[in-house]
Specification:
By secondary structure, the chain is α+β, with helices and mostly antiparallel strands. Helices cover 19% and strands 19% of the residues. The chain has seven helices and eleven strands.
Length: 277
């Protein structure tokens, strides 16, 4: 293509462009465009089932702390509350590549925001109120603050990291460390290249943790069918099959006993893939 032809293509208005191909260069309408622009699209947050309970969770305010006591009596006594659970009630473990995360913290919280209790109630407002009534006594511990702390291994996030179930052949956890997986790869001769370079620049930079922040929050509706013993999940997730597999493992049931339904997803960017419900 000549420079003149290239410039013609670059600056040509899309509306005036006529492609000579059947598919390439042809305008197509997104299959979900009409529902979204007219407001007909229903997301998981829009769904509501008959008799549905609303769940809320209580999160640890500390980066690392020992849980000394959890008093749920006031929350349990609140009218409309149907269930209050803590890590002492269930040992539910989840994880995409390593099953290293307790659904509810037990004995110790390992990061700020870790869930320590959950409530199910007849309304969202009652569930929110019940959460505020739960009293937790903590003993604050020294956390792992950054990468240097983690590599120093003075504090182990998981003392049994090498025993945690993980994807074999993909993850290689190192005993006695905070290293979830050690993978080494070498291509070429980087030391030789640096030795021959006219100029070598060295610096150190860090990046903070970044949230995906989709417009739609993480949300899920779960229904246990007493007649078929099936579990149905409606959720805003990007990986329905991985989600089904992880849920089956966590609850010790068959994949075939779980149905995952994904309505419209209000943004994900990778943040709704994996274990999040």
């Amino acid at each position: 293509m000549s420079l003149q032809e290239l410039e013609h293509c670059t600056y040509q208005h899309h509306g005036d462009y006529e492609s000579g191909y059947k598919h390439v260069g042809q305008p197509y309408q997104r299959k979900d465009a009409l529902e979204k622009v007219t407001g007909q699209a229903r997301y998981a947050f829009d769904l509501e089932m008959p008799g549905m309970l609303h769940a809320k969770t209580l999160h640890s305010p500390h980066a690392r702390a020992k849980i000394l006591k959890i008093d749920t009596s006031k929350a349990e006594a609140l009218a409309g509350v149907k269930a209050v659970i803590t890590g002492e009630n269930y040992d539910i473990v989840v994880g995409l590549y390593m099953q290293d995360k307790l659904a509810l913290a037990k004995g110790e919280t390992r990061y700020q925001g870790e869930v320590v209790a959950a409530v199910a109630a007849t309304t969202e407002a009652i569930a929110e109120k019940a959460i505020s009534l739960i009293e937790v006594e903590y003993e604050v511990l020294e956390p792992v603050r950054n990468l240097d702390d983690a590599l120093a291994a003075k504090t182990l996030v998981h003392p049994n990291i090498h025993e945690i179930k993980h994807v074999e052949g993909v993850f290689f956890p190192q005993a006695g460390t905070n290293i979830a997986s050690l993978n080494k790869s070498l291509k070429g001769d980087p030391k030789g290249a640096m030795a021959e370079a006219d100029l070598v620049l060295e610096n150190e930079f860090t990046l903070p943790a970044v949230a995906h922040v989709p417009l739609e929050t993480h949300v899920a509706i779960v229904e246990a069918d007493p007649y078929t013993d099936k579990i149905r999940i409606w959720t805003s997730a990007q990986s329905p099959f991985a989600l089904r597999q992880l849920m089956a493992f966590s609850f010790g049931i068959s994949d075939s006993d779980i149905e995952v339904h994904i309505p419209f997803v209000g943004g994900g960017f990778g943040g709704k893939a994996g274990i999040h419900l």
